Amino acid sequence: MVKISNDLTDYIWSTSTFGNTGKDGIKVFDETSDGGFIVVIRNKEDDASYNITKYDSNGNMQSSSTPTANNTHARIYDVLETSSGDYVVVGAIRNTSTNRHDLFVQKMSSGFSILWTKTFHEDDFSGISVSTPSWHAVAKSVTETSEGSFIVVGSLSRQLSVDDFFNGRHEGSVLIKLDSDGEASRIW
C-alpha cells in the first residue's frame, strides 16, 4: 500500500507488511473512522485463506486476524466499521456437510475478537426448495441502520442441469436484516 498526497505529488509512506507468498491480493480496502485502514487480504496460493488487518493512518499494522475459526474456503466481500467501532464481515463460507457456500456474517470487536457468527443457506430463504441441493448463498455488502441493525445484501445462485449448462446460472437477490446481536429479524 502506498499513501500519497491529495494532489498526487508527494509520497507519504508505503507498506508491504501483508502477505507472505507473493501471490496475495487485496479484496477489500476501506478507510476507518480514525483515519486508518481496514484491509482484507486473500492468499491466492490456496484460494481459501483470508486475513483482516487494521492499519493506522501512517500504515503501521495495529491488529490482524483470520475471519473464521476454520477458514476453509471463506470468501469475504465486504467489511463494515460499525458506529460502536466493531467490524462486521460478510461473504460466504463452504458448508462441508453440503459442499455448498453459505452466506456468512460475522461481527468482531475492534481488536478482532469474534463476537458472533451467523450463516444462512437455502433453507433459510423462502421460495427455495430444499429438494434443489445446488444453491449457493453469498453476502456481497453490509450497511448499518440508524438503530444499529445491519442490512446484508447478497445473492443465491445455482448451476443448471448439464442439459442447460450453456444457459449459465439462475440467480436471485437476498436481503437480510440482523439486529446488533446477529439475530435475523427479516429475510427477503
Secondary-structure topology with pairs:
Elements: E1 2-4, E2 11-14, E3 24-31, E4 37-43, E5 50-55, E6 61-65, E7 75-81, E8 87-95, E9 100-108, E10 114-120, E11 135-144, E12 150-159, E13 169-178, E14 184-187
Antiparallel strand pairs: 1-2, 3-4, 4-5, 5-6, 7-8, 8-9, 9-10, 11-12, 12-13, 13-14
Summarize the structure.
With 188 residues, this protein is mostly beta strands.
**Total E-strand runs:** 14
Major sheet attributes? 4 strands, antiparallel
Q: Gap between N and C termini, in Å?
A: 38 Å
Helical fraction: under 10%
Q: Label the structural class.
A: mainly beta
Please tell me how large the radius of gyration is.
Answer: 18 Å
Q: What can you see in these coordinates?
A:
There is one protein chain. The chain is mainly beta and 188 residues long. The chain has one domain. Helix content is 0%, strand content 53%. It has no helices and 14 strands. It has strands at 2-4, 11-14, 24-31, 37-43, 50-55, 61-65, 75-81, 87-95, 100-108, 114-120, 135-144, 150-159, 169-178, 184-187. The chain has a 4-stranded antiparallel sheet, with no helix packed on it. Strand 1 (2-4) and strand 2 (11-14) form a beta hairpin. The chain is globular, with a radius of gyration of 18 Å. Mean pLDDT is 76; it is low at 128-132 and 161-167.
